[in-house]
Amino acid sequence: MKRNQFSKYIYRFTACAMLSVTAGCTNLDEVLYDRITSENFLQTRDDVTRDFLRAFEHSYWSIQGGSTFMLQENSSDEMMTPNRQGDWFDGGQFQRVHYHTWTPQDGYTTDAWNALYGGVTLATNSLEDLEGITDPSKFEMTREELDGMIAELKVLRAWLNIRLLDFYRNIVIVTKVKGQTEGGAQATPQEAFAFIEQELKDALPKLSTNTTLGDNVSGRWTQGGAAALLVRLYLNAKVYTGTDRFADCATLAQEIIDGKYGSYALESRWDAPFDYTNPTSKETMFGFPGSFAQTHWQYDGGMYFWMLPNLAPSYFGFTDFGNANPKYAMQPGLDVDSVEYSFTLGKPFIKFQKYKDDLRLKKYKNLGNSKREGMFLYGYLPYTNAAGKQDTVRGFKGPYPLYLRDQVGKFLDAKPGTKIADKVSNMNNADNNSGIFPVKYPFYPSDDANKISSAYAEVRFAEIYYSLAECKYRAGDKAAAAVLLNTVRKRNYPAGSPSLYKADGSQLTDQEMLDEWMREFLAEGRRRTDLIRWGVFSTGTWWDKKPDADKHTEIFPIGQNVLNASPQLKQNPGY
Predict the structure, then answer these.
(1) What does UniProt give as the signal peptide span (predicted)?
(2) Contact 432, 363 (CB under 8 A)
């Protein structure tokens, strides 16, 4: 399938069904026009393509829709949504996520389930349509092309199911939706794991490689992408099933690096995996294609556009979306008196500052010609206002300039370094100066041709290196782990940097491994999963967060609305 054709449909496909019943005034025989089946809906190759793509757009939305991103990040030691002088309190729902005190009555416990199962249902419905095609030539397709589409849908469904397994553990395996009026029973985590694993293995040989697809790879599940999902599954297998699969994870990760499932390569610049060139980047193992004019879910309010202070778009020169709204920021590393907290988890900006020459530590700045430097917004953010005068970013709770800092409190108009009387630093006592903001994907100026054009890189080749490094570390081979990590890390530092790990891996500890996962994958929607795998999600301490009473918080409750609609389901333990 050509890239422009795929992009056109993935952005614009809309499923419409017009149901009509006509009855004449004198003739009471009913004429029905509502019989839409795969036999009469699928008439052309384009029909098959549209059917194939139905689940992709919803799945792209699901990276943040249904609060999925919020639940992964805000429940961890990485991101926060504090009460900013009344903004973002929202009935305390984000505080309950931070403190792990959510309940089945919290809407997001239902929303995430529905968002992910919405994708599973769409993918399964399309699978049933495509698997029902007995003569692909009728649609000017070969059997190989049709089997490839079916395989891609199974991989997409597996990706959704992995996330369901990660969130809820006791899930329903859906393989049929047509004619179904009731939901199925829950599978055990072991059964769900086995189903996902087998579905990926079965799909893998029927998929294309990125080498075969070339520049048409954007938005396509390939052999490399499917193998990468198996790496994710195996890396977390002990959490999901109780059985360690680190050896299988290592074997498969090494095969991917060796080129068995396609030709992949790491970018040489730290920002390139997130830039407008990433749809065809050799580091993107699977990405949802995005653009300013069409779909761009990672730039939506559910993710990165609300990971900015109010007037940050003016600082960027990107004004097409209006003002931002600071829903997300990084958790602080310093108290209100600028003293570093003593806990070891969290403190993301301090973890970056551990290596002083990290190129990502520069303040984010657009350089022109679709280029930028730096990954963080901090301090004052100057810009030229509509009157042509120099100004600086301000909040909406006072006219004073904002000074963004690695702290949480009521700083208001206090100048940097000024001691404030209010020493409270918690989720319920923040202002718009509180927290540093990461800018992972660029916000180029409104007149830049490549603004908001990045794909969402759901699977990056760097993840395979980090997964293999973790397996090597767990097996006692710190030297091999250090080499693998440095292969990725070297792009974050100047040539000859002392910040690379020593060749013997002696600097690596459990905490350093976990910190390095944070540095490389900050705000990519995986931190909760990593904390659970390292055994500290429920037992750890970080900013304004004490250990949980037990481990039942490692999975979310199934929302009460879901249980009400599906009485055959049983609530997860502890809820």
Answers:
(1) 1-23
(2) no
3-state secondary structure (DSSP) of residue 507: coil
Distance CA 475, CA 465 (A): 15
| Whether 82 contacts 407, CB under 8 Å | no
Q: How far apart are CA 366 and CA 346, in angstroms?
A: 28
CA dist., res. 151 & res. 153, Å (int): 5
Residue 26 has what pLDDT? 31
Distance between CA 572 and CA 232 in Å, rounded? 23
- pLDDT given for residue 41 in this prediction: 77
Burial classification of residue 195, based on how many CB atoms lie within 10 Å of its CB (0-12 exposed, 13-18 middle, 19 or more buried): middle
410, 383 in Cβ contact below 8 A? no
Report the Cα–Cα distance between both ends of the chain, in Å, rounded: 47
In the 8-state DSSP scheme, what is residue 404? B
Of the candidates 524, 517, 54, the residue with the CA atom closest to the CA atom of residue 298? 524
Angle between helices 107-131 and 143-168 (to 10 degrees): 160
Q: Which of 223, 237, 197 is nearest to 286 (CA)?
A: 223
* 366, containing H or E segment: strand 365-366
d(CA 258, CA 428): 49
Q: What are phi and psi of 196, to 5 degrees?
A: -65, -45
For the segment 474-489, what is each residue's pLDDT rounded down to a tens digit? 999 999 999 999 999 9
Give me the pLDDT at residue 401, please. 97
Check: pTM over 0.90? Answer yes or no. yes
Residues 6+ apart with CB under 8 A from 80: 74, 94, 98, 328, 329, 330, 331, 408, 427, 435, 543
Which residue, 490, 349, 377, 493, is CA-closest to 442? 377
d(CA 336, CA 348): 17
CA distance linking residue 355 with residue 208, whole number of Å: 40
Record the tokens describing residue 245, joined without a space: 């699969």
Task: Report whether 487 contacts 465 (CB < 8 A).
Answer: yes
Sign of CA dihedral 466, 528, 193, 284: negative
328 vs 304: CA distance, rounded Å = 8
Q: In the chain, which residues have pLDDT < 50?
A: 1-33, 36, 38
Helices (H), 218-360: 223-235, 237-241, 246-257, 312-316, 348-353
pLDDT value, residue 37? 56
Strand intervals (E) in 289-354:
329-330
Total Cβ atoms within 10 A of residue 269: 13
